[in-house]
């Protein structure tokens, strides 16, 4: 008889399957239809890359992790992570982040935690590209301390009314669905410290009453997707739109945040691979002092270090995704992956600028855009200090500072 231990080892492979190679090839060829000039323009005008979004939907990429009974491809996090990695490798971070917004923030969350009526109503529409989803967690005064959020949802008839404000919400100006983290029981009345938070799926085109106001923030990274302040004024949401259970939102967050971390790690590694390849090509072709600049160790070694960092980050990312798919606790690997991926991508982008010299500062080289984009995941969704806090406490048994 094959024990679970042996089965796990039989299933674990360090080689991508033929199907996974095909996933890369197919999504890569779609991504390549949208060239650097397209993404450069979207970065400078801040417009949503609608043609690209529609092409993803048309070719079935938002069907990736929709359950089979709803007509989906029913792939897991390992495969979704490979797709996000390949897209970032071909087209950069924003192109890949859109896949996270739909497949991870929306589809993964809805299929895991939404009520049956919402699942059957929304998953098919999401797969067809009929919605954009935002995850509304961060608030100006709470910062990384989620338990301090002050956006409230209070009972009204057969539903709840949301009031409060969020900040830094990606794609909120396009969103027709919002996953809003609220407080339903005041902190001082909660039985347990972590009780009292509830997640609501707000359908912005279908509000019985109330208003959602959005204010765009001029920012540094992934400018084509945009960041926003969002204000909820007496926004009514039916009880059916609660994700998970009332007051138990905290229990859902690890699954959402781990999936997000695996996603940001996948994209970071892809972006790092993109800039590293560009930097190596340039280092071979650019001659100064009558030799390629890549023959100087000062240029070559940091590029080799980038390669090592990216390989390491990818290995832990795939491990985290495998743990996620196999219902293991993936928090440690997902946090390490997000941390290592973000640092590796930023280091690779920074060294790509150094390799390009002055040219790295020109918009036309695209390196400065990738450098700006690669910076984000060191600060959000999880700042690296909070990853280290978590690892220090959970893995090393050190005192908690958060
Ligand atoms: C471009 C962009 C897009 C974003 N998109 C979204 C989105 O779609 N949805 C969403 O909900 N949020 C989003 N965010 C918000 C992001 O997740 C937060 O900015 C991030 O989590 C940090 O929170 P904060 O800005 O409130 O920092 P703060 O909580 O104010 O922290 C500031 C600094 O202090 C550090 N710090 C705090 N406490 C400790 C401690 N105990 N030990 C050590 N260091 C500590 C933090 O690590 C951080 O470096 C986005 C942010 C940006 C910039």
Kindly, what is the distance between the CA atoms of the first and last residues, rounded to a whole number of angstroms?
46 Å
- Helix/strand/pairing class, anyone? alpha+beta
What is the CATH first-level class name of the largest domain? Answer: Mainly Alpha
The biggest beta sheet, please? 4 strands, mixed
Task: Identify every distinct bound molecule in the structure, by name, code or SMILES.
Answer: flavin-adenine dinucleotide
Percent helix among the residues? 40-55%
Give the percentage of residues in beta strands. 5-15%
Instruction: Give, in spatial order, the strands making up the sheet with the most strands.
Output: 1-4-5-8
Helix-strand string = HHHHHHHEEEEEEEEHEEHHHH
Instruction: Let me know the CATH homologous superfamily of the largest domain.
Output: Butyryl-CoA Dehydrogenase, subunit A, domain 3
**What CATH architecture of the largest domain do you see?**
Up-down Bundle
Shape: globular
Tell me the number of helical segments per DSSP (H or I, 4 or more residues long).
12
Calculate Rg over CA atoms. 22 Å
CATH fold title of the largest domain: Butyryl-CoA Dehydrogenase, subunit A, domain 3
Q: How would you portray this structure in words?
A:
The structure is a single chain. This protein is α+β, with helices and mostly antiparallel strands. Helices cover 50% and strands 14% of the residues. It is globular, with a radius of gyration of 22 Å. Bound molecules: flavin-adenine dinucleotide (FAD).
